[in-house]
Design brief:
Blueprint lengths: L1 H47 L6 H6 L2 E3 L6 E2 L6 E2 L4 E4 L6 E3 H10 L34
Antiparallel strand pairs: 1-4, 2-3, 4-5
Bound molecules: zinc ion (2 copies).
The site of one zinc ion has 7 residues, from loops.
């Protein structure tokens, strides 16, 4: 009766260890899968709600040429906006800046540099936000 006792003494702990190891590997695998899924979800969320505006979205913002009607200052570069310089007017809050300055800012932050008004329309109510900026073209009346 020596053999079965040795068998029990060796095989049982071995299979027990194997079982524990298998469960452990299973848990590690599950944890890795969950973490990867979370990372993918976070990455796609970041892509969807990326903080800055895309080039195509920037191009939709109206660009005007500054006149000499008032003393403007670009809040991005803190220099005055001279007559003839291209400015971009934010459609919701009507703040205006040098176009290159605010483009650089908006590429990283989709909010007005002055009042923090978001330039990304809320996804549920995109239809409610209509651009009301009318550009007065100079060559309409020939
Ligand atoms: Zn500027
Ligand atoms: Zn603003």
């Amino acid at each position: 009766m020596l053999f079965p006792r040795i068998f029990v003494a060796i095989v049982l702990p071995f299979t027990g260890t194997c079982a524990v190891f298998a469960v452990y590997m299973c848990l590690v695998y599950c944890a890795m899968r969950i973490r990867r899924r979370e990372e993918e979800a976070a990455a796609s969320e970041m892509k969807n709600t990326s903080k800055g505006l895309q080039r195509s979205e920037l191009d939709k913002l109206p660009v005007t040429v500054a006149g000499d009607e008032k003393d403007w200052e670009c809040s991005v570069c803190l220099e005055s906006i001279e007559k003839g310089q291209k400015t971009r007017v934010l459609p919701l809050c009507k703040h205006s800046f040098h176009a290159p300055c605010v483009d650089r800012w908006l590429a990283g932050n989709a909010v007005c540099p002055i009042c923090r008004t978001s330039l990304q329309p809320p996804k549920a109510t995109t239809a409610a936000v209509a651009p009301v900026v009318v550009l007065s073209g100079s060559d309409e009346n020939c």
